[in-house]
Design brief:
Elements (H helix, E strand, L loop, with lengths): L7 H33 L3 H26 L3 H25 L5 H4 L3 H22 L10 H22 L18 H4 L3 H32 L4 H13 L1 H13 L2 H25 L13 H23 L10 H19 L2
Helix pairs in contact: 1-2, 1-8, 1-10, 2-3, 2-8, 2-11, 3-9, 3-10, 3-11, 3-12, 3-13, 5-6, 5-11, 5-12, 6-11, 8-9, 10-11, 12-13
Length: 345
């Protein structure tokens, strides 16, 4: 793999520059995905999970795989799990941007709740991999096989839940329905798909730049891989989710905003499987530097998503500062978790 040798200030500039590109490229994706949902008839929940979730997750995928190829297993895992943590907390920011009511109340849907349930199951499998014996099958850990198989079942369940839901959330004055806009149905499908593809290519390349800068920072400073990956790198590669979720809320595409975050988290879990396949020195879950910090980070991400699921089910209309109690808790858990991670290990 190509390695770029830069002084420390050059690595910082590369990191900031690549993160900026990721954020700018993410601005247009919410608009493309919203219109694609209406044009194809797939709906915001499925489009947010598959198309928008995948596109906005590409920087993180590129960064984790690049870190694994370069021999930084803790960086690869912490980027993936840290990305899930920061993206879930980003829903609290989107909730602040939505003034009418609690976002989780207005965007409640069966597919979004099913996605959150399946995401928790996938992250538990990551915990299994981190705590299980160091064994491999065809050079990958069995947990990677379980992650891939479970993800396939999860996508099918989300699709079936949207197509033939067995129950629906109670409709209130604040509930925003996913109703296609007629002008979007007449737009060119090729043009909309091309826009997403271009955004995907730009963010993926920038994700590799973030990974290169992060690896250099680990090598040149005393900052642990888990902090660089779980905080700095994860925030940088998660900028598309933050930007697009807030942009989707401002466009009134609330279901798209929530499903983008949860869908992006789906792909973030699979980064661990992809990074395990790209790590040639054995099991990624038991690589050098991987240990209690990664277990703590995974547990924090699980807790954040359980809180989110609780908010989607409870559906509080208004809470502190006009956001839901779950948004307040998610911010507290995220910020407190990284304080503990930074000082407690």
């Amino acid at each position: 793999m190509f390695e770029l040798s830069l002084p420390l200030w050059g690595d910082v500039l590369l990191f900031v520059g690549a993160a900026t590109v990721i954020g700018v490229a993410g601005v247009a994706t919410a608009s493309f995905a919203d219109r694609l949902a209406d044009r194809t008839g797939l709906g915001e929940a499925l489009t947010g999970t598959v198309f928008l979730g995948f596109v906005t997750a590409l920087p993180g995928l590129a960064a984790s795989v690049a870190a694994a190829l370069a021999g930084y297993p803790a960086l690869a895992i912490s980027n993936a799990l840290g990305g899930i943590a920061v993206q879930t907390a980003a829903l609290a920011v989107a909730d602040i941007a939505y003034k009418r009511a609690n976002l989780e109340h207005a965007a409640a849907s069966a597919p979004n709740m099913m996605q959150a349930c399946m995401l928790v199951a996938l992250m538990v499998l990551v915990l299994v991999g981190l705590s299980a014996p160091n064994v491999t099958v065809l050079r990958i850990h069995p947990a990677t096989i379980g992650l891939t198989a479970t993800a396939g079942v999860a996508f099918w369940l989300v699709y079936r839940t949207r197509k033939d839901p067995m129950w629906r959330p109670t409709q209130t004055d604040e509930t925003v329905q996913d109703e296609p806009e007629e002008e979007h149905k007449r737009q060119s499908l090729r043009w909309l798909a091309s826009g997403l593809i271009v955004a995907a290519a730009i963010t993926a390349v920038a994700g590799v730049g973030v990974a290169q800068a992060a690896q250099n920072l680990v090598a040149e400073t005393a900052i642990p891989e888990t902090i660089v990956g779980g905080l700095f790198m994860a925030v940088a590669t998660s900028l598309p989710e933050l930007v697009t979720s807030v942009a989707a809320v401002r466009r009134g595409a609330l279901t798209l905003a929530v499903s983008d975050i949860v869908g992006g988290n789906f792909f973030d879990v699979l980064f661990v499987a992809a990074a395990d396949a790209a790590y040639f020195s054995g099991s990624l879950f038991h690589g050098p530097g991987v240990g209690q910090k990664e277990v703590f980070l995974t547990s924090m991400a699980i807790l954040l998503n359980v809180v989110l699921l609780t908010g989607l089910i409870y559906r509080q209309k208004h809470g502190p500062a006009n956001i839901g109690f779950e948004s307040v808790l998610m911010l507290v858990i995220y910020l407190g978790g990284f304080v503990v991670l930074s000082l407690g290990f």
